[in-house]
Amino acid sequence: DTPLSPIPFALRIRPLTCTETRRGDRQVVRSLGDGTVHVTEARHDATFGFSAVFDAGASQEAVFEGSGMRQLVELAIDGFSCTVFAFGQTGSGKTYTLMGPLTQSKSQPSSPGLLGLMQRSFTYLLEQSRSRGGDLALSASYLEIYNEQVRDLLSPGPPCALPLRWSKTRGFYVENQLSVDFESLETITDLLLQGSQRRQTSAHALNRHSSRSHALLTIHIRSRTSILPTRVPQPSACPSKLGTLCFVDLAGSERVKETGSSGELSVEANNINRSLLALGHCISLLAKPRGKRTHIPYRDSKLTRLLARSLGGSGITLMVACISPSSRCLSETLSTLHYASRARKVTTRR
């Protein structure tokens, strides 16, 4: 039987912002340097452990190397279904960790040192493909879940809702989603930036570029079929491997009172929080010993349906929790840390 493996978990603590420093916010979260963080404030004193912890001074390269992202790319090449997702309060640095600065564009590329997990993974993946003599066929798909609608971020024209289907062989999948082949870093980076610029964002009190949707960029990796030498009595094709590497940028949890959201922003926030609550519920049930689990309600949201295989199947998942060290964000930070602690108990089959 395939052994059970706990989901690896990394924590990233962003620096205090200029606004938080001017406001006089205190830093209430500190890394203890051994995979643990300490939260201390008037009525709260708690320590949490992770596979890896990155404090405010950690570089993007350090996060890539220390989180296990390089190994995840290698497993995807070997045919595994791999997923990395970043989560946390809005404004906690999730999109920066995955992509780098939000201001980058095709005409204004980001400094190489600031590139996120995505671009570094693309670079490593293409290096591996070249070292194998171009043996890997690569393609990408990119979608967002906005107000419980699944929308393709790569298809031309205005984003339109796509149906989410179920089959015994594929599990949950998005019908009619566009998949684009690529062979160069420039092409996949352009696809990433093109899709990200179409993603639904808004400004509010906590974040000038708040993501109002969950985004999933999936890289499909297929080993090209090779033919055995003709001297073999019965020539046959070597079976090709099909792996995936999925990057999930979850919209931030938020309290409507703190963000000052109203009208459409409030509706968006409620949909975001509802889907994150459904994800948290699934994670809580998955964290129970296998003999004590009840039905896992993946169908409660589009997000949990699309992540069902990553969380509860044979997929390999890396989670990156992002938090603010500010005393003003203490409640949401503790919520993220407790959420992460539950998720660390989830095991998957390798």
Structure in a nutshell:
With 350 residues, the protein is of the alpha+beta class. The protein has helices at residues 18-23, 60-67, 69-77, 94-99, 117-131, 185-198, 256-259, 264-286, 302-306, 308-312, 330-343; strands at 4-6, 9-13, 29-31, 36-41, 44-49, 52-54, 81-87, 136-146, 149-152, 161-162, 164-167, 171-174, 180-181, 201-204, 207-211, 214-223, 242-249, 316-323, 347-349. It has a single domain (4-100, 114-203, 210-226, 241-252, 263-349), classed as Kinesin motor domain (Kinesin, 3-Layer(aba) Sandwich).
Shape: globular
Helix percentage range? 25-40%
Overall CATH class: Alpha Beta
Instruction: Please count the helical segments.
Output: 11
- Strand segment tally: 19
Report the end-to-end length measured between terminal Cα atoms: 10 Å
CATH domain topology: Kinesin
SSE order in H/E notation?
EEHEEEEHHEHHEEEEEEHEEEEHHHHEHE
Beta-strand percent range:
25-35%
How many separate domains?
1
Radius of gyration: 21 Å
Label the structural class.
Answer: alpha+beta
Largest sheet: 10 strands, mixed
Low-confidence stretches: 202-209, 226-237
Task: Characterise this structure.
By secondary structure, the chain is of the alpha+beta class. The protein has one domain: Kinesin. Strands 2, 6, 7, 8, 9, 10, 13, 16, 17 and 18 form a 10-stranded mixed sheet that branches. Strands 3-4-5 form a 3-stranded antiparallel sheet, covered by helices on one side. The longest helix is centred in the last third of the chain and has 23 residues. The radius of gyration is 21 Å and the shape is globular. The relative contact order is 0.22.
